Amino acid sequence: MLSIFYAWAIENGYTTSLPFTYRQATAVFSGQRQEVRRNSARRRQPKPHVTIKYLEDEFADLFHKGLARLQPDGSVERGYRGREMARNAAVGRFVFSSGPRKQEFSYLLACEVPKLPSRRSEVPILVPLPEGITKGSKFRNAWIDYDALAELHNYLEFERAAAVQGSTWMPPRRWGEPLVVTEAMALGGRVNGAWTTWETLGPPERRRLVAPGGGSMLLSVCGPGRPFTDWNTVFERASDRIRERYEPRFPHVTPPPRAPHLRHADHGQAGTRLLRAGRPTGQGR
After folding, report:
1. DSSP for residue 141
2. Cis status of the peptide bond prior to 124, with omega within 30 of 0
3. What is the mean pLDDT of the chain?
4. Which CA distances in Å does 119 have to 67, 114, 123, 158, 270?
5. How many whole angstroms separate alpha carbon 59 and alpha carbon 65?
6. Tally: H helices and E strands in the chain
7. What is the pTM of this model?
């Protein structure tokens, strides 16, 4: 359409040149060959996020059960010995509910998880995501369902607490100096003797934080209190197992932003419900 417009403009003397070039090409139609001019201009290609496909609710439920080592009917999956099932299921459900990016949930600290309300509510709970780990270093809010937050607290209070109790883990030298925390609160703590706010710490600093009682300060830990961030492997193995054992159509799932099959719009399932209800999600300050 643009080339037709410029041809008209040249014919009527409004311009003398074209903003693009042509090259000769051969077209075949009904067995007839014909020499034609082809515009060398390229159409803009869609950005990766335009082609993102999200999991439907049925597949999302199947994936969450797979992370928890459960079969589609909810019974325990036999013949599979996975590790850290409680952690995988709790964090996976958090990702579905809140829609955080991989860096955001991988480097969130345990003390930054919001408190569980005393009463169950249908209203989602606010999850502040500090600027030190968000895209573009811009503070934003996410939302989480009560049941998803309750599962996350169960992991914190039992499996994670057992993993870090008495842990002697220290960050390897190649990461830099250990950041030993002696006091920890929701917004900050005393690190190597100086008060520090968590929002000022990026991923490299957060993975070096050593909790007051031992072990990593990150939400997700493995083994004897070591920080865990390899969610690509966890999600890929779970999706592969589901596809092999239960559902051949199940897609390859990796954490956002590599292939954000887990993100429900930009706000998670909880935030999407708020949008449908006409309430602001509180993105940014």
Report:
1. E
2. no
3. 85
4. 27, 14, 11, 21, 17
5. 10
6. 9, 10
7. 0.74
